[in-house]
Amino acid sequence: MKKFKKVLRLFLIIFLIVLASIGIGISGAAPPLPKDKRRTNGEPVQEELVEETRDKVKQNKAIKS
Predict the structure, then answer these.
(1) Residues with Cβ within 8 Å of residue 39, at least 6 apart in sequence
(2) What is the domain range of residue 20?
(3) How far apart are the first and last CA of the chain?
(4) Which of 19, 20, 39 minimizes the C-alpha distance to 29?
(5) Number of separate domains in the chain
(6) Mind listing the pLDDT tens digit of every residue in the chain (65 residues)?
(7) Contact assessment for residue 27 and residue 20, using Cβ atoms and an 8 Å cutoff
């Protein structure tokens, strides 16, 4: 009886692996998760570009130190 249970358990594991393989083959792999969630919500991403001249940066550094 113990041998029968071991064989049955092995058969069921192999059967589940085969079913999973068939399911992945039919539907394809899971889609990758998006890296930037803000873009997936439909909200436009707004980015600001701050441009400063070198002179202003030097003046700010001189004032801070």
Answers:
(1) 45
(2) 1-27
(3) 84
(4) 20
(5) 1
(6) 999 999 999 999 999 999 988 888 787 777 777 666 555 566 666 777 677 677 676 777 777 65
(7) no
- Does residue 48 sit within a domain? no
- Token pair recorded at residue 19: 């079913």
Q: How confident is the model at residue 25, as a pLDDT?
A: 79
| In contact, 33 and 40? CB cutoff 8 Å | no
Q: Do the domain assignments include residue 23?
A: yes
57 CB-contact burial (10 Å; exposed 0-12 / middle 13-18 / buried 19+): exposed
Distance of CA 42 to the CA centre of its chain: 18
